[in-house]
Amino acid sequence: MGSGQGSDTRERHEPKVVLVTGASRYFGSRIASRFAADPGVERVIAVDTMPPGREVRRRLGRTEFVRADIRNPLIRKVVENNNVDTVVHAALLTRPPARGGRPVMKDLNVLGSMQLLAVCQKAQSVRRVVVRSSSAVYGCSAKDPAKFTEEMSARTPPAGWFARDMIDIEALVRAMARRRPDMSASILRLAPIVGPRLADSGVQYLRSPITPTVLGREARMQLLHEEDAVAVLVHAASRAHGGTVNVAGDGALAMSQAIRRAGRIAAPVPLFVFRTVGRSLMGPVMRGFSGEQPDYFYFGCGLDTTRMRTELGFTPRWTTVQAFDDFIAGAALRPVFDPAWIDAAEHKLLGLIGAGSGAHT
User: Fold this and answer.
1) Which residues of 285-305 are buried (b: 16+ CB within 10 A; e: fewer)?
2) For residue range 228-286, what is the model confidence (pLDDT) as tens digits?
3) Phi-psi sector, 314: left (phi>0), alpha (psi -120 to 50), beta
4) Which runs of E-coded beta strand occur in the chain?
5) DSSP structural state of residue 251
6) Strand-pair partners of 211
7) Residue 328: in which H helix or E strand, if any?
8) pLDDT digit string, tens, across residues 163-210
9) Cross-strand bridge partners of residue 253
10) Model's pTM, two decimal places?
């Protein structure tokens, strides 16, 4: 992270003309609407390859939508002709699309980011760039520390396509920042995102009454609520002074706790079954997993969020547990059993154990 007079100057940035990518999708549309609601922002330009639907258009308010592909060099005209000073890049695919598969995913993620960042580098009007990344870049393995700081890297190279794309994109951002030291370039590594309106989440498989887990392992998860994910990307546009920041809700949630709170029934299986046969046995639930998710459900991933609070100045409204509970409530899951029944049984058992222990002391 930067320091000195240059850093102080960049911290006082006030976005005037903001460009947001992925306008037709969850993050892009909500980020654009936040900027549109800010009277201090003069113009908001939202771009995407597909036009937003009617509901999204209403949400965008005064946002100016431009149908454009960030992979096309014409994106340069959009940035330069409108004197864009702030760019929030939120248009990222977490898994291959039905049409095109992995080649299209990499094309949109990596090549699209490369073109957009090249434009930002050359456009002198651009003073601040915020890029959405993911904690997936840290991978998941038995060698992992309790918490990753931003200076750390994956102990075992991630196997998932999304993680590898994020690593490539982050390298492009850092290269741009070196060439434009007068620009603030921020990378936000978001923990797995959950919420009632975001279907594409790392715990989506809890919709199944029978939840596959890995035998002999208790992963601890840190999560981020969908609203906090939007809020931090908007916040960073005016407050971040460059560099990489981990973002996650307070606390952690063990996999067994998550399954219980969802009212599901755990089905422990060996890791090799979880990764292979499980994808077939569990139907679309596990077949929809990205390459990173099986390892995440086995090892988990802890994030050090000190920099998020002290340097970025951001505090999530939702803790990890609150974010998860809101996801469960919004998903309208029908519990296989009442979680309160299990809690009551545990308390009764602990009471009996305590009474028995007291009789012998």
Assistant:
1) bbeebbbbbbbbbbbbbbbbb
2) 999 999 999 998 789 999 999 999 998 888 888 888 888 787 777 766 655 555 544 44
3) beta
4) 17-21, 43-48, 64-67, 86-89, 128-134, 184-190, 193-194, 210-214, 220-221, 224-225, 243-247, 253-254, 265-269
5) S
6) 266
7) helix 320-331
8) 999 999 999 999 999 999 999 999 999 999 988 886 444 455 666 677
9) 221
10) 0.84
